[in-house]
Amino acid sequence: MKKNKSDRKMIYRVFVVFALGLICGFGVFQSPSFAQSLSEPFTLQENFQHDRLGQFASYPPPQDYGYEPSITPTSDYDAPGGRALMRVLKPNRNDRMRFGFIRQTFLQMNENTKLSFAYYLNHARVNDQIEIGIAGSDNCRYVKQIQAKTNGWIREEILLRDFRCNGNKAITKGVGIEAFYIIADLKQADADIVYHFIIDDLTFQASRPARFVVRQPQSVNIESQNAVVSAKSYVAGERVSLSVLQPAKIKNVTATIEDQDGKTITSQPLFDNGANGDEQAG
Fold first, then answer.
1. Average pLDDT estimate for 217-243
2. Which of 8, 189, 218, 221 is the most exposed place for a label (fewest CB within 10 A)?
C-alpha cells in the first residue's frame, strides 16, 4: 500500500476485483512505503511458555541447520516462568568458545529502546562475558558486553544507546534492528565441563514501522514475518472488500494487488468519505 501524509480521516473501504485469471490464496498486506519515516512503539516479548524456539536459532550458526540438537526448550533449572530456552555446549578442547541465541526482528531504534532478559549460565570464569549484539540496518554491528555471572538466574536490562559499533559509533534513532543475539563468551572453556546457557523472560522495547490495521477481510498478524495475512482465500473474479484503519492522518491511499512474482494485477484508490461505496469515517 502506498500513501502520503496529510490530514484525512480514519477509515477507508474499497471493493477490488481480481483479474488476469489469478487464483488467490492467502494475501499478505505489506508495510507502508513511508514506514521508515513513520513508526509506532512496540514491545517484543518472549517467555518460552511453550515447546517451540520462539523464533530463535543457534548463534554462531551451526554447520548443519537441519540437525541442531544443542538448542531446546527446557522446564529444568527453575526458570522464572517454568520454561526457558537452552543451549548446551560440550567443548572438544580447552579454548575460547562463544555460543548462544539469535533472532530476526523488524524493530527500529528510538530514544528509549532497551532489552531485558533473564539468563542462567552454569559455569563461568572471571573474564567470561555475556555479549549482546544488534544487526543494524546501517550495516553496522552494535555490541555490548557485560560480565558473566553464575549465581542462579540473573536479570539484565540494557539500554541500546550504550551499544557501540567499531568501538565508538552509537546506534541512532530510526536505525532498523534487523536481528539481535545473546551469547556466552567463554575466554577459556574447559573440555571437561558441559555448559548450559539458558534465557527467559525476554522483553525488547523499541519501535516498529507503522502499519494499517486490517479490519476486513479477517486477517492474522504474523509478527515474526512482519506480515498481516488474510485468513480468507479468493478465486479469480471474486470481489474483495478491503477495510483498514490508517496509522496516521493520510492524504491518499492506494491498494495494490500483486501476484506471487510481484506483478501488479490491479490498483484501486481507497476512500473514507462515503461517496464511493466506502465507509464514512467517524
1. 77
2. 218
Q: Let me know whether 156 and 243 are in one domain.
A: no
**Mean pLDDT comparison of 31-35, 90-94, 259-263, highest-scoring range:** 90-94
Is 271 within 8 Å of 13 (Cβ atoms)? yes
Smallest CA-to-CA distance from 153 within 131, 121, 196, 129 is with 121
Do strands 141-147 and 129-136 pair parallel, antiparallel, or not at all (unpaired)? Answer: antiparallel
Range of the domain at 239: 2-38+210-270
- Check whether residue 137 and residue 61 sit in a common domain: yes
- Give Cα separations from 71 to 101, 138, 189, 199 (angstroms): 9, 30, 19, 11
How far apart are the C-alpha atoms of 197 and 179, rounded to whole Å? 20
Q: Are 170 and 199 in contact (CB under 8 A)?
A: no
Helices (H), the chain: none
